Amino acid sequence: MFADKLLTCRDCSSQFVFTAGEQEFYQARGLTNEPRRCPSCRALKKAGEGQGQARSGREMFDVVCSSCGRETQVPFRPTGARPVYCQECFQGARAGSQY
Pfam family of this protein, just one (predicted)? Predict the structure, then answer.
């Protein structure tokens, strides 16, 4: 149903792929606009242009969500021993479990 799309970042003008999986994720959440920034520029904007560091000054690491396949950043170095999730999938999994 979806096919990968090549988009141009509005900030750095580089081209990036809006994958079929990301498109499906956007549709499932009712998002109608395509991303206008590449993953790197999105991460910089989200971190307040901290050059790859979170607002707290911690180093951030690029990962692919084990659940939805979206690119995201986490404040720890993944070892590969356990799955890593984006914020939305992590919160969804957390809400579904009972503490």
Answer: zf_Tbcl_2
**C-alpha–C-alpha distance, residues 30 and 11, integer Å:** 25
Return d(Cα 64, Cα 83) in angstroms, integer. Answer: 10
Structure tokens at 52: 């790859």
Considering the entire predicted model, what is its pTM?
0.46
Domain that holds residue 75: 5-96
Do residues 55 and 7 lie in contact, with contact meaning Cβ atoms separated by under 8 Å?
no
Enter the tokens of residue 96.
């579904």
CATH code of residue 33: 3.30.40
pLDDT in tens, 61-80: 899 999 999 999 888 889 98
Task: Look at the chain and report how many structural domains it folds into.
Answer: 1
